[in-house]
């Protein structure tokens, strides 16, 4: 659309786009919570880590996250596609659930459904992640060694940064009610949530990896001493 300058989508294309976006967004919500739970078990119950997060359990958690995201996306897209619209111009740069609520006739049932979906797949995983990290921080603060506390915090820092950026922009965009006078603000948040955050995630995670940092320094022609 950006390259062609043609911002027209067919009905089918629009809802395929919506389905894909909601699917990966809901799945990431759940995956971020699973990662928080992983840190919780690793620090608070290290002796049970390989039991609770065995390969079988990890596959089950991943499958559940992707499967639940798929079902949720299907239901949301199906419900949205049945709305009565008073215009075919979507006030957003992609087919978005909240944008459709602005161009549809008042539907209290749909509004309630969209907020319930947001609570289950947004607020719920976020609160569970916060509870996990609260427990983690309490345990870390009881570590007597300062070096031990630093290492424990360093294992959580990347995920905490991603968690803050992702849910911060998501909650600002989807939890607040539709605002007609702040369209530019909403579009900015949408870009941060749907474009900038996914681009930043790999950088945040990989910059903590010594092998990645060593490879980047070598790529820039900087000699790195092997440890």
From TrEMBL:
It comes from Ranitomeya imitator (mimic poison frog). This is G-protein coupled receptors family 1 profile domain-containing protein. InterPro entries: GPCR_Rhodpsn, GPCR_Rhodpsn_7TM, Olfact_rcpt, Olfactory_GPCR. It comes from the Eukaryota. Its main location: membrane. Keywords: Cell membrane, G-protein coupled receptor, Membrane, Olfaction, Receptor, Sensory transduction, Transducer, Transmembrane, Transmembrane helix. Residues 1-205 form the G-protein coupled receptors family 1 profile domain. The keyword Transmembrane helix applies. It is a multi-pass membrane protein. It is found in: Cell membrane. The chain crosses the membrane at residues 16-37, 58-78, 118-141, 153-175, 187-207.
């Amino acid at each position: 659309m950006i390259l062609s300058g043609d911002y027209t989508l067919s009905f089918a294309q629009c809802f395929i786009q919506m389905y894909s976006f909601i699917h990966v967004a809901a799945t990431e919500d759940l995956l971020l919570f699973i990662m928080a739970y992983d840190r919780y078990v690793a620090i608070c119950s290290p002796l049970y880590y390989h039991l609770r997060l065995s390969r079988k359990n990890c596959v089950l958690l991943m499958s559940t996250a992707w499967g639940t995201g798929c079902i949720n996306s299907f239901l949301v897209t199906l419900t949205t596609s049945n709305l009565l619209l008073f215009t075919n111009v979507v006030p957003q740069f992609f087919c978005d659930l909240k944008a459709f609520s602005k161009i549809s006739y008042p539907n209290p049932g749909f509004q309630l459904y969209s907020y319930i979906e947001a609570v289950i797949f947004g607020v719920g995983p976020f609160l569970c992640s916060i509870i996990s990290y609260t427990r983690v921080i309490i345990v870390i603060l009881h570590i007597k060694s300062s070096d031990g506390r630093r290492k424990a915090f360093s294992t959580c820092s990347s995920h905490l940064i991603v968690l803050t950026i992702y849910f911060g922009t998501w909650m600002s965009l989807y939890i607040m009610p539709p605002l007609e006078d702040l369209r530019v603000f909403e579009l900015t948040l949408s870009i941060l949530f749907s474009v900038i955050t996914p681009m930043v995630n790999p950088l945040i995670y990989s910059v903590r990896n010594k092998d990645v940092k060593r490879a980047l320094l070598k790529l820039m022609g900087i000699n790195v001493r092997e440890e």
